[in-house]
Amino acid sequence: MLKDSGSGSLSKSKTHSSSNKRISSKDKRILKQIYFAEESYLTSSTSEGKINGDVKRRCKQIIKAIYLDEPETLRSYIDSGRRPLHIKEIQRRILEAIELNSLECLKVLCETYEMRPISRKKNADIELFYQWYGLASWPLNERPKETALHVLPSKSNSEKAMKVLDECGSKFVTDFLDVEDSHGSTPLLRAIKCNNIAVVKWLLRKKPNVNNINKRNVHDESPIYVAALNDHVNVIKEILETYSKPEELRSNLLEIMKNIDGELNINGHSILYPASLSGKSEVLNLIMKEKLWEDFLKQEKQFKTIDRNKWQEFFCNVCAAGCKDLAKIILLDDPDLVRGSNGEMSPLMRAVEANQQEIVQLFFDNIQDEDFLNVIKSCDKLNRNVFHYAVKNSKVLKDLLDKFRELSKDYEEDYGAINGMDNDDNTPIKLAALENLEESFEMLLNYATSEEDLFSANLIHTLKSKVLKKRLRSWKENDADAVATLLNGEHEKHQPFLEAAKAGNEDLIKFFLEQNANPLQVTHDRGETALHLVVLSGNLNVLKYLLKKKEFLEMINSTDEENISCAGYATQIGHAEILRFLHKKGAKMKSDKKTGRLNILDSAYGYFKWCENSIEELIAICTPQELKELFEDSYFGADHIMSKLIEEIPNVAKKIFDQCIYKKLEFTYSHRSPGEIKARKRVLYNFYPFKRKKRDGKLEAIKSMVDFKRDSLLDHSLVVQFLNQKMNSPSIRKWFILNFLLYVMFLLTLTTYGVIQRHDVHNLKSPEMIVLSFFILTICAFHFIKEILQIVINQTNYMHDFENYIEWVMYTCAVIYVVPVGNTKADAQIACGATALFLGWINFSLFLKRFSLLGIYIIAAKRVFLTVCKVLPLVLLFVLAFSLSLSLLMPLDEGFNNMPISLLTTFVMMTGELDYRDTFLASGPLHFLQKILLVLFILMISITIMNLLTGLAVGDANEIMERSKEEKRIHKAKLVMTMESSLHNFFLIPRPNEIDDCEVDSLADEEMQPSWWLRQWKKFYDDEVDEPAVKPMANEEKNDYGKQFDELSEKIEKTNELVKQMLEKIPPGGKGRRRNLAV
Fold it and tell me: How many CB atoms within 10 Å of residue 438?
């Protein structure tokens, strides 16, 4: 329903013109929504969901007149119809008029209702309606169906509407006064829930049925219960006045109030119970004032014997509500209630928490001193006592503390209650500090059992510095030794100086140092110094302050019990600025065997995800040589540390790789032309990121790049050069060549054996064939042993490589094919031989992808093949369709006489081999369906599908080539890892040497003249290295580098020309001079 203008939802304009005048845009928008709601109602009210056009137009005009509050227009539409409005329709329109604040139209509708007779038989003419307007967010099935009187209390102009109803709608009000909505709520209950006292009084003056005062709805709410629960004292007072006479009516009301739960037995609560739950005392005070409490309290007292916990709960509620008179009566009747029960909050706790000072005073006056002291000391299930709940109410706390001091006899034992700790380790003084309740804190401060408790970790973090300073100075005057013990960090519980450092509180740190706090103290549990804790706080200013002092600067490399320095802490938690400052101040980054200090990379191990910033800062502040030494110093080994960095923060790993590459430009004399000066570029690659602590054959950093698909790192110049150097190492090269030659010999021997067997060139039992068989079996045995050893060594990684399965099937089929030796081969052996040869050559082609020269093209072909395979299922559907059709139309043709042959023939035709004459014309004239199918086949398969496959295969050649390069690098990395692992685990095979660094010289090949064999190996297996980045320290010179190189090259060429000219001028006899000049 539309809310009135005061409710802030849909509302109509303040002024409305007649229907003949212009309607505002706002009203048009709202009317559109109202029309939609009207149609929805009309549709739902018809059995078939169809609406008569005239009825629809009339209803729209009526609701428009109501919205615009045009009574004459409304009256004309009510009277102009062929038949008058039904009584139920009038009820709905009255509800809409109240909802839309249309008071003039409400008069017309009430007058119309007064003139219509209503049948009271089973309320046949009483109808409930949904609110339709402005409630889109409230699902229809959750809304109650209501009458106009239910809507009335929620309207801001309800008083004006009541006047209209009094003047013109008395019959309507009488008819609907006690009608419940679909949820069982009466208009009176709705008015009480809306706290509209004017409507409540108006409805009560109409004297609704007294039994409905406590009639419960589906939510277990009744008018009197809700009024008491919300402490609506005016409503209760109005109810009492309304039903005060006659006496019988008053008796019925009091009986309802006595058993407000609506139960017929004695186990129900009285009105006192919901009134006490409100947390306020006005309704309870009214009942006490009217002297109605005796019967009601008697009803509650039944729980003393039936369920004492409920009786205890009721008394606690009364104390929290603050009804002193009722609480006093109950307390005097049952003094044991003050103690509480079952770990629940006691009545005194409830009163204190609710700041009911009068109730607290009532306990003071009516409880014996010894009992009261026990009540104060008692705790609830949270282990809190009354002082925990009193900290928020300073006046109540003061009264309690004064009373407690008056009653206490044993200071140490009794005062422990004031400083008691709850289950969350909170004392009353700590709660006061946390809530910043200064007045309560000052009061509790005087009752602290020990001064040192004020300097506990929790209070150091919460109290204001001025409070702690004041208390420490006061305590120092009384007990200087105790203060010294505390400030030296020797107290068993509290170390305020270290806690101030942990909080990064510079003010307190300065104060404690002024008070002679020991700067060398460490925490009891982890052995952390003040510098460690300041680093944890992240406060750089405090760290700068401390390191200005000599004593702290000397302990900059001190470690905790886990041998981690403060620089290790900064690295571990990612404080880059702090790490930079510590490095500047001389903090050591490497480990120290004498002190046991850990390398800072080892300190951050396991936290790399969170310390990206600090490691980036470490790269920036360290020279390349320092960074190398730091990695080599790691306990876990540089290779393992790099593998974790690659896994968790690859961007940082790339920056480390960048630091490992240097460029140098040198000028040297040529070895070939005496006196000629040549410029040579040297690129130095430091491979320390791959240096292993244990030589177990595992390349962990490379493995992480492969496993986590760090393609950009595999493409890095350092990694490419490292893999090149690994492949060029003599051990790997020899082991690779050995495997390659054995495989080639196996493949050629098997091929030769197959060709001879196929053409019957030799008898299979001839010596030549037996030798071939023996050779094949020997190589298969060697490979079986090698594969088994690889399974043992590599385990899971071996199982994930599909090529290994190919090799197992290939060698197994080769053995079956060759053995046993006989004159003829069985069909199964022939099939195994064909499989072995096929897989052998396919595997050989896949093997070639590891070569730099050929690999990229083989991988590209593989990717194209996989792309075609993805769309092949769709293509097969088309092939199946044509195959089935042609096999039915051409059953005599050899290519279509059975289903498998038909599928194969159609598939071959797809490639362009139609054999039009032999296939379609040889058997006579074509059927018209054959012609149609042939044309469709050419268009759909030969042209469309084949072009689609071609487009998909080579659609993005550049992307395919790039991805192929990446895959080739992965295969090369896997090959290096496999070879390295094999050489370290196979006995009798020399292990490859570690590669520390590598220098690439632009003139090296020219001067050193490597062997033809080595040049060919590099040609096949070395990947091209992109021009490496100059180390970051040379970035400023990067832009001028090319220009400088060109200028220097020109000068060198000119110098060389001058030298040649001088040599030519020297006479033949001056060889000695020529030699000296050349030198």
Answer: 13
Q: In the structure, what pLDDT confidence band is assigned to residue 647 with cuts at 50, 70 and 90?
A: very high
Q: What share of the chain is helix, strand, coil (3-state, %, to 5)?
A: 65, 5, 30
Q: Is 197 helix (H, G, I), strand (E, B) or coil?
A: helix
| H, E, C per residue of 401-466 | HHHHHHHCCCHHHHCCCCCCCCCCCCCHHHHHHHCCCHHHHHHHHCCCCCHHHHHCHHHHHHCCHH
* Residue 63 pLDDT > 60: yes
Q: Can the peptide bond before residue 689 be classed as cis, meaning omega within 30 degrees of 0? A: no
Does this model's pTM top 0.70? My answer is no
Q: CA quadruple 961, 965, 966, 967: dihedral positive or negative?
A: positive
Last residue of a domain, one of 205, 229, 260: 205
The rounded Cα 494 to chain-centroid distance in angstroms is 38
Number of other residues whose CB lies within 10 A of the CB of residue 456:
20
Task: Please list, in sequence order, all residues whose beta carbon lies within 8 angstroms of the beta carbon of residue 765, skipping any fewer than 6 positions away.
Answer: 821, 822, 823
What does the alpha-carbon distance between residue 842 and residue 838 come to, in Å, rounded to a whole number? 6
Query: Does the residue 16 lie in any domain?
Result: no
Distances, alpha carbon 43 to alpha carbons 38, 139, 649, in Å? 9, 18, 63
Q: What is the DSSP string of 490-548?
A: -SSS--HHHHHHHHT-HHHHHHHHHTT--TT---TTT---HHHHHHHHT-HHHHHHHHT
pLDDT in tens, 90-105: 888 888 888 888 889 9
On the question of pLDDT at 952 being above 90, the answer is: no
3-state secondary structure of 778: helix
With vertex at residue 406, the alpha carbon angle to CA 402 and CA 412, rounded to the nearest 5 degrees, is 95
Range with the poorest average pLDDT among 410-424, 654-668, 812-826, 1012-1026: 1012-1026
Considering the domain boundaries, does residue 553 fall inside one? no
Contacts of 655 (CB under 8 A, 6+ apart): 616, 619
Q: What is the domain count for the chain?
A: 4
In this predicted structure, the answer to whether residue 476 has a pLDDT above a threshold of 90 is: no
Q: Is residue 792 part of a domain?
A: yes
Token couple for 119 = 């049948």
Largest CA distance in the chain: 155
If asked whether residues 960 and 873 sit together in one domain, one would say yes
Asked whether residue 62 falls in the same domain as residue 146, the answer is yes
Judge contact between 994 and 691, C-beta under 8 A: yes
- Considering 205, 227, 243, which residue would you say is the last residue of a domain? 205
Q: How many Å apart are CA 254 and CA 417, to the nearest integer?
A: 46
DSSP result, 823-887: SS--HHHHHHHHHHHHHHHHHHHHHGGGSTTTHHHHHHHHHHHHHHHHHHHHHHHHHHHHHHHHH
**Is the separation of the CB atoms in 817 and 829 below 8 Å?**
yes
Distance, CA of 859 to CA of 865 (rounded, Å): 10
Element (H, E) at 668: strand 661-669
Please say if the pLDDT value at position 28 is more than 50. yes
Looking at the DSSP bridge assignments, the partners of residue 667 are 679
Q: Provide the β-strand partners of residue 616.
A: none
User: Are 171 and 194 part of one and the same domain?
Assistant: yes
Q: Do 839 and 875 reside in the same domain of the chain?
A: no
Could you give the residue ranges of the DSSP H alpha helices within 800-826? 802-818
The 3-state DSSP class for residue 712 equals helix
- Residues ≥6 apart with Cβ < 8 Å to 41: 130, 132
Q: Report how far residue 149's alpha carbon sits from residue 204's, in angstroms, rounded to the nearest whole number.
A: 13
Q: Determine the pLDDT at residue 1059.
A: 67
- Judge contact between 19 and 65, C-beta under 8 A: yes
User: Which residues span the domain enclosing 785?
Assistant: 748-850
Buried b / exposed e over 835-855, threshold 16 CB at 10 Å, is bbbebbeebeebbebbebeeb
The token duo for 249 is 């009516």
Shortest CA distance to 636 belongs to which of 607, 598, 595? 598
DSSP SS3 for 662: strand
